Amino acid sequence: MLRRYLKFAAQVVLTVGFSSAFAGAYEDFFKSTVNDDARTVEQLLARGFDINSRDEKGQNLLYLSQRDGAPKVAQVLIAHPDLRVDLPNNAGETPLMMAALRDQDSWVAKLLDKGARIDGTAEPGKPGWTPLHYAAASPGAKALQVLMARGARVDARSPNGTTPLMMAAQYGTEEAVELLLKQGADLQARNDLDLVAADFARRGGREALARRLGGGGR
User: Fold this and answer.
1) Is the pTM of this model over 0.70?
2) Does residue 95 surpass a pLDDT of 60?
3) 140 phi and psi, to 5 degrees?
């Protein structure tokens, strides 16, 4: 009985000690993207901190490194063997989606090389937001080109039927619109609200683009 108690007590001490060792580390880990503090991340991972931890908002560090522009932190993470490269946040967004939204073409390529799914969390053949949707809405077209060159579905449908071309028409660049059209994007595709790409352009106050896309009318 005494032996079992001592063994249990030792396990408690180890558990408490482990928790104490990471007291404050959680906050430091997720603050590392503010100043692109790769050294802190390396130290915490070397001590056994879970690379796939999420913060209180459900964000993982790889996603945050793309959102906050922390390439040194991202490089440490992407080199780690335990990284879940497609780990989504609570909204179902992956690090690849965020890299695409920020038009970080080099990171889009790196994440794909690491094994990130080109269609994000969408199941093959089923509707779902994809990195191409995010790239189409970005302030550039470099990430879009990388994704299309790697085989992204140009007419991928979101849960409400929205296509990357629709996103580009309202939020993206005209270069993105042209690239999608050259890749064969369907101008006449309609989402669940019966809207086509021209309608999205008009919603974005882009009347000239709407006319070029066929007018729409909603």
Assistant:
1) yes
2) yes
3) -145, -165
